[in-house]
Amino acid sequence: MHDTSNLVDETLAFTEDELEGFIEQVGLPSKCSCADGTLELAMNADGTPSVVALPDPREEHGSNWFFWQVCDCCGQSRFLSAGKIWTWFKDKEQDNQHV
Ligand SMILES: [Zn+2]
């Protein structure tokens, strides 16, 4: 298990390049199923990746966080679990330390 004490700060610190790297390395296709569009990472005006937080109806203080991509043609969107991405980077970090 990874140390989750800085999970929120570390998640919010992910850059566009890091997330694009994740998307490429896990092999997510950028072509949208509408066949005409490309899925692009949703960004805030200040250049940080946009995060969507959805409350968990079963847990008063719980929420699920997602980075997301949106098709530049049809608007179809894909959510990427922020927790999963965080874990992916932590696993990679750990692997690198063992090399
Ligand atoms: Zn599309």
Question: Keywords, please?
Answer:
globular; binds zinc ion; single chain; 99 residues; alpha+beta
Describe the fold and architecture.
The protein has 99 residues and is an alpha+beta fold. The chain has one domain. Helix content is 33%, strand content 22%. It is built from three helices and four strands; from the N terminus they run H-H-E-E-E-E-H. Strands 1, 2, 3 and 4 form a four-stranded antiparallel β-sheet that branches. A hairpin with a 5-residue loop joins strand 3 and strand 4 (77-81). The radius of gyration is 15 Å and the shape is globular. It binds zinc ion. Zinc ion (ZN) is lined by residues 32, 34, 37, 71, 73-74, 76.
Layout of helices and strands, plus pairs?
Layout: H1 7-12, H2 16-26, E1 39-41, E2 51-55, E3 63-71, E4 77-81, H3 82-97
Antiparallel strand pairs: 1-3, 2-3, 3-4
Bound molecules: zinc ion.
Task: Summarize it.
This protein is of the alpha+beta class and 99 residues long.
Structural class: alpha+beta
Ends apart, CA distance between termini: 19 Å
Report the β-strand fraction as a percent range: 15-25%
Shape: globular
Largest sheet: 4 strands, antiparallel
What's the count of strands?
Answer: 4
Output the helix-strand order: HHEEEEH
